[in-house]
Amino acid sequence: MNEDIKEILISQEMLSNRVHEMADEINRDYKGKCVFFIGVLKGCFLFLSDLLKDVKLDTNVDFMMVSSYSGNQSSGVVRTLLDLKQSIEGKHVIVVEDIVDSGLTMSYMLKNLKTRNPKSLEICTLLNKPSCRKIKVPIKYAGFEIPEKFVVGYGLDYNELYRNLPYIGVLKESAIEKGKRYDK
Ligand code: 5GP
Questions:
Q1: Spatial separation of the C-alpha atoms in residues 36 and 40, rounded to whole Å
Q2: How many CA atoms does the CB half-sphere of 119 hold within 13 Å?
Q3: Which residues have C-beta atoms less than 6 Å from ligand 1?
Q4: Which tens digits make up the pLDDT trace of 5-62?
Q5: pLDDT tens, residue by residue, 69-120
């Protein structure tokens, strides 16, 4: 285990099993349809790639990057840093996110994407922290409900570190206090 991780919350095996199940649900719900997946960078990258390997539908994939976090504190301000390259008008869209915490990011994205007239628009998140919600967001697919803890791994970072961990872990306070950064 990485020295900065206090506890493994979700193991590699649990992640793999749940991601298979989520893809099965999507395959069932969208049978015969083409689905436009929007990955929310950067946190979604491992989840989305594992999920898509099990999706047996016709798919489009595009990415957005929005920013609301710096370190481990929510700034509450959401900005679009990278927008879609393709139109979603008349498409069945699923937004794939690593984690829904306050809900501010997803709420901003939904509002923005609705104006582009998709045929349907749903949210798929690997992790859900319902106790931290500041604004209600309708989540169709949620992998795991987790407690109010700052987690890293499987795409999620702290100061751009730990995205490569194959599990979801809770960061030690000492790593947060150090404000550890990639500077070696
Ligand atoms: P929200 O806008 O729902 O508060 O937060 C969404 C974004 O905040 C996520 O996409 C993620 O980047 C970041 N975030 C929220 N909670 C955590 C967490 O526990 N760990 C990490 N690494 N990022 C988080």
A1: 13
A2: 8
A3: 43, 68-69, 74, 97-106, 150-152, 156-158
A4: 999 999 999 999 999 999 999 999 999 999 999 999 999 999 999 999 999 999 999 9
A5: 554 555 567 889 999 999 999 999 999 999 999 999 999 999 999 999 999 9
| Atom number, ligand 1, closest to the C-alpha of residue 105 | 2
Instruction: Tell me the domains of the chain and their CATH numbers.
Output: 13-146 (3.40.50.2020)
* Annotated catalytic residue 183: no
In this prediction the pTM is: 0.93
Q: Where are the alpha helices (DSSP H) in the chain?
A: 12-29, 45-53, 104-114, 173-178
Query: What is the C-alpha to C-alpha distance for residues 82 and 33, in angstroms, rounded to an integer?
Result: 27
Question: Of the residues 98, 134, 152, 154, which should be mutated to test ligand 1's pocket, given the most ligand atoms within 8 Å of the CB?
Answer: 98
